[in-house]
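re: ur question from yesterday

yeah so i grabbed the chain u mentioned. its 334 aa long if i counted rite. heres the sequnce exactly as i have it in my notes:
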Amino acid sequence: MNINEVALALGISKGTVSRAITGNGRIAPATRQMVLDYMAAHNFHPNTIAQSLSHRKTMNLAFTVPDDRDLIQLPFFLQCLVGARTAAHPNGYDILVVNNTVSDVDRVVASQKVDGVIVSRNLVGSPMLDHLEKTGLPFVLIGTTPQRSVLQVDHDHRAACRELTGMLLELWQGKPGLIAGARSHMVSRARARGFQDAAGDAPIVWGAVDEKSVLAAFTQLRERGVDLFFCEDDMICGHLENNLQAGRLGVDGHDVRVASFYDSPMLEALTPEVPVVHIDALELGARACEMVLARIAGHEQNNVLLQYEIKTRRTDRRVIADGGDRHRGSKGKK
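ran it thru and got these C-alpha cells back, copy pasting raw so excuse formatting
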C-alpha cells in the first residue's frame, strides 16, 4: 500500500494523507484520525524516507536530465533547468542535476539529499514514475503520462503539430513526410500523432537521433517523393537544414521545404528561417519547480497545460501566411 491507495480508499487527496501522517499543515483532527485508523487497520507504515524529509528539509531539488549526447544536442533540457533554477533560488532551494534513470534518482532519494524531484522526460515503459510514487516524495513530470495520479506540466504537442502541419499544407504544394526521433519518447509520439491528424497517411521515418540517421531518413523520404519535410525536433531540423544549405544532399534547397515541431536557439541562426512550433522551455522549467515546491509545502496542485505559439516567417525561399506570427494554445488546468 502507498499514500495514493490510502487517499483513493478514503476519498481524500494525497496531500491530506501526507499531512495526516506528518502532522504538518492544516487538517481536521477527525480527518487525521480517520487516516491513521485506516493505516493501522491495513498495517500500512509510511515510507521512512518520505517521513524523515517531511521533518527535515534538505533545501535541494533533483532535476533529471538525459544522457550527455541528448543534453548537448537538445537545448530544451538546459533551458528547462535554467527555468527551474530561477524559481528555486528565491525560495532558498538549490538544484541537483541527476541522470534520468531510476538508479540515479533512487540514490539521491535514498540518501535523503532532496525534498522533491523534477522529471524532465517521460520514456515509454519507464518505471521512473511508479518508483517515485512509491517513495511518497513530491515530484512533478515535465511531459505527459496517462497516470492520473502523477502531477504534470506540458504543452499540447499533438494540437500544436496538427495546427502547424495543417496550416503549411494549405500554403505549400507537394508531398509531406515526417522525420521523427526515437519511438520511446512520449513527446515524439504525440508530435507524430499531430502530424498524422493533419497529413493522414503521409510517410514517417523514425529513429533520427543523430546527423547520420537524419540524413538517411531524408533520403528514404525523397525516394518516396516527399518534398515537404516536417522535422520532429530542433536537432533533426538543424542537421537537415545545415546539410541542405551546404549542398551536401544533392538537392536544390529551393525544391524542398522544411518545418520544425520544436523551436530552439539552435534554429535561430538558420537562414532562411523555418516555420516552427515555439514553446517557452524556461517557463516550463520554472512552472515545474513552482509546482513541486507547492507540493512540498502541502498545497494541492493541478496539472498545467502551457501556451504554445505557431511561428510562421516570411523568407526568400518560402512564401508564408500573411499576418506574421499566429498564436494559439490554452493556458491553465488540464
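noticed a couple things. The first helix runs from residue 3 to 10. also The chain is about 45% helix and 15% strand.
anyway ttyl
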